[in-house]
Write a structure and sequence with these properties.
Blueprint lengths: L1 H21 L3 E6 L13 E6 L2 E5 L5 H7 L9 E3 L5 H4 L2 H11 L3 E5 L3 H11 L1 H9 L5 H4 L3 E5 L6 E3 L2 E8 L5 E8 L2 E5 L8 H5 L5 E5 L30 H11 L3 E5 L8 H8 L6 E4 L4 E4 L3 E4 L3 E3 L1 H7 L8 H8 L7 E2 L5 H5 L1 H4 L6 E2 L1 H8 L1
Parallel strand pairs: 3-4, 4-5, 5-6, 10-11, 11-12, 12-13
Antiparallel strand pairs: 1-2, 1-14, 2-3, 7-8, 8-9, 9-10, 14-15, 15-16, 17-18
């Protein structure tokens, strides 16, 4: 009976939390990966929501699958935005756009140059297919063409999608790339896109609640990285595509953003302690590490994989260099079935890598006692 009541309370708490999040500006990391295929990380994509407004930024490989896991219907999207037109950021745009046309929703499509021509090309290539599918509901392509607005963003003029104000700026990358800022009242979220050090980004992200940034320079678990790889090299003539940790932490500091969220990882597991140590050379606020379906809300709550709610301050404590892991915080992050211990399938990051060594009695679970013995 007690277990049943606990489950009911957890369900009600989740429902209340979800309802509360609707009334705050929220970012869901649909994909936290990169061009390198990874079964644990889909390609780059972030869903920005506020009340009934939903804006999808970038549409990398796996976006549709994770939108489905997130219970987000494509026909309910209000905006499709691009940071830039590298394939890993737009490869699922065509099916998403066509589904949007078939769904009949009003939508804004915007991004850097080539955005309008990409839309026109999709309509040209798939005209017969779209027409066939629309005919099943007695509609034609002409009936739905007025449902979307399609534009290249060139003038740095803010615009609105629903109640969300969208601002943008050019940042440095190998092709034309935009960073976006989303504002509702005093809540704000910024997405950097891929970039190298850009003076424009801290201006756009000034005092933002969350800065979701390219994770260039992040350290993979188990790797040995020389800190000099993350120093700004002003003498190199080779064109760079991504920031290093010195550059990302410097921009976050200059922006005075409350939380820095690293994403666009080329590997599954991050050495968060080593990465955070280097970031702390410039930036002292909360550092978070994105994972697919992590929900970030401007009421200072984090939901990882739609399951566990965490306060950013707790994550900051977890990521503080040289700190001893806190088992209560680890349970909040990993104990999906709420049994008070962590199984190998629930374990994440360095705990998962070292699971066998920490599971002292070899029963397939890590308990608080076993973790305490390890830290004594």
């Amino acid at each position: 009976m007690t277990r049943y009541l606990i489950l009911v309370l957890l369900f009600l708490g989740t429902q209340l939390s979800a309802q509360n999040n609707i009334n705050h500006l929220t970012a869901t990391i649909i994909g936290s990966g990169s061009p390198k295929y990874n079964t644990e990380r889909s390609g780059p994509s972030v869903l920005i929501t506020y009340k009934n407004t939903q804006i999808l930024v970038d549409m990398g490989n796996g976006t549709q699958a994770n939108l489905n896991k997130n219970n987000t219907k494509i026909k309910m999207l209000d905006g499709l935005l691009f940071t830039h037109h590298h394939l890993d950021h737009n490869e699922e745009f065509a099916p998403i756009f066509i589904q949007s046309l078939l769904g009949g929703n009003k939508i804004i499509i915007a991004g850097p140059k080539q955005t309008a021509s990409i839309v026109d090309n999709i309509l040209d290539i798939y005209e017969e297919d779209i027409a066939y599918r629309l005919s099943k509901s007695d509609r034609s392509l002409n009936d739905v063409l007025s449902n979307f607005k399609n534009k290249n963003l060139t003038e740095n003029t803010p615009f609105y999608i629903g109640d969300i104000k969208v601002s943008y700026t050019l940042v440095n990358h190998t092709i034309e790339t935009l960073a976006y800022r989303f504002d509702v009242g005093d809540e704000s979220i910024v997405i950097s896109g891929d970039l190298t050090y850009s003076e424009s980004l801290p201006i756009l992200a000034k005092n933002a609640d969350y800065l979701i940034m390219d994770s260039g320079g992040a350290i993979a678990a188990g790797s040995k990285r020389n800190a000099t790889n993350n120093k700004i090299n002003k003498q190199s003539t080779k064109e760079k595509a991504h920031v290093n940790l010195t550059e990302s932490s410097k921009m976050a500091k200059e922006a005075n953003t409350k939380n820095l969220v690293l994403t666009h990882f080329t590997f599954a597991t991050i050495d968060e302690e080593a990465t955070t140590t280097q970031i702390r050379e410039n930036y002292n606020n909360t550092v978070l590490y994105a994972q697919d379906l992590m929900v970030i809300t401007c009421n200072d709550s984090i939901v990882e994989n739609n399951k566990t709610q965490v306060d950013p301050k707790q994550l900051s404590e977890i990521n503080t260099p040289n700190s001893v892991p806190n088992f209560a915080n680890m349970l909040k992050r990993m104990d999906d079935n709420r049994d008070g211990k962590i199984s190998k399938t629930e374990a994440k990051g360095k705990l998962k890598e070292n699971f066998t060594n920490r599971d002292k009695n070899n029963d397939g679970y890590i308990t608080e006692d076993e973790l305490s013995k390890r830290n004594q």
